[in-house]
Each structure stands twice: as C-alpha cells, then as structure tokens.
Amino acid sequence: MAEVRVDWNTHVHLASDCMERYRAGLDALCDLEQDLSIGYDSKGNRLKEPINRVIPFLTDPRISLDNRLRLILLYALFENGISSESMVKLLAHAEIPFHDRSIFTNAARLGVDLVVEEGRPRFSLPPRRPRTQESAYTSARWVPRIKDLMEDAIHENLSLDHFPYVVQRDPVSERTIARSARFGSLERSASREAPKTEVLPRLIVFVVGGMSHSEMRSAYEVMAANSWDVIIGAEQIITPTKFLDNLRSLSEPFEPAVNPVGLNSYPFKRAESLEPLV
C-alpha cells in the first residue's frame, strides 16, 4: 500500500508540474499556433493583425528557441510570405541565432518563399475543406492537408493535374468459380463453417520526406469513416524538432552514403561466380 501511495503521489506531482508549465504561456501559444494554421480563431472569426499577438511570444524568455522559430514560420505562411524587412525585424525580436536563420531561406527549396519582395507574386495554398467541428479541443483544431487528399482519393475526386498517374477504379466483376462435382458438398459445408472476413478496398499512401503523428491519426480517421483499409508510411516520423532539423540540413552539401563493403561500384557478385565458403 505504501508503494502505491508513493507512485500515486509521483504521478500527481508530474501532472501538476506539466499543468503549471502549460499554463505559463504554452496554452496561449498553442491557441495562437492553431489560429495561424487554419486562419481562424476558436470562435470561427477570421484573424486580423495577428502580428500583435506574435511579437509578445517572440520576446518572451520563457518561450524556447524552437517554438519561436516555428511561430515565425507559421506567421509567414499565414501571410503567404512577408517582406525581407519584416523578416529581419521578426528575427531580431526573437533573437534568432545566425546559424538558425537558414531555416527560413531553405523553405524556398520546398517551394515555399517565406520572404517575398514587393511586386513579386506570392505563393498561395490550395483551398481547404472546412473542418471546424472535427475537434473538441481548441488546441487541436488543425487537420492535416493529407486527410483531404485521402478522402479525395477514396471518392475519386483527386485533381488529374496534380495526380495524373491515379486512375479510376474499375468495378469488380463477379466471377463464377468452378466447383467440383465430386467434392462440391464438402466445399459448401466448409464455406459455411469458415468465418466470413470482409474484404475492404485499400488505399496506400507514402509521404516523401516524412510524416507526422497527426497525419498518421488522420489515416485512422479516414479508414474508420469510409470503411477502407488505409495504409500510410514514410521514411521517417517527423516531430516539431525533427522538422526544424531537416530544414537546417537542406543548405548543407549532400554527402552520399559510404559503401559499407568498401567498394566503389558493383558491391555484389552473381551467385554462380562466388567461391564456396568451405
């Protein structure tokens, strides 16, 4: 009983500590990140002058560097790009180190120009499907864009301009299976006894560059809502910290992987040309 009481006190202390940290600015930061991500506040109103809410967080010493970096990224995405003068001011307010500023220029390598000069066309994101009622928590209102794509793929609404290789499904034709005249009764009795398994249509999604946990959750939600078998994968699972690290590395020179067997080319031989091991 004493051990249970000690464990319970430990959990209560950890929960209280987490709640104190969350209420020390992180709750308001989460709300602002959600507002910038979807363009509306928790009441459904369009954001106006969000810079007035962004600056206090950039100058708050309690906000970590990664959170300040991500907040600047979200604000620039919300504005569909900002001027170089505005970007310099934001970096100065947030006290972003020089070696971390490559994150914002490297975003252009992904097709997103966060810094847009006067007169140049700004990038624009495709329209989103309204999903204001999907989450019961104001701090989790953002729905990954890949959920729209998975639903469009299931309902055959994908744009052929962006996905020209996706063909429409052909209706499955019923085929008559030949049955043995000698063992037909045995086959019918076995089919009645065997458990019936429902065969669901399958959607396979691979995300180049990595996927987040929220994108994985969206695959489960699409699967449950549409009675489809959805399989999602990527070469890595991206966390907020991992995402920023990946952006930093885009400006670094590419170094090919070293051949583990120490050969420059053709590391494997044909099986018939190998000498016996014994």
From TrEMBL:
Gene3D superfamilies: 1.25.40.60, 3.40.50.1910. Coiled coil: none annotated. It comes from the Eukaryota. GO terms for biological process: vesicle-mediated transport. Belongs to the STXBP/unc-18/SEC1 family. This is Uncharacterized protein. It comes from Caenorhabditis auriculariae.
